[in-house]
Amino acid sequence: MTQPPSENTDTPRGLAFAIAAYLMWGFLPLYMKALSHIPAAEVVTHRVIWSVPVAGALLLILRRTRELQAALKNPRMLGMACITAALISVNWGIYVWSIASGRALDAALGYYINPLFSIA
Question: What radius of gyration, in Å, describes the C-alpha atoms of the chain?
Answer without folding.
Answer: 17
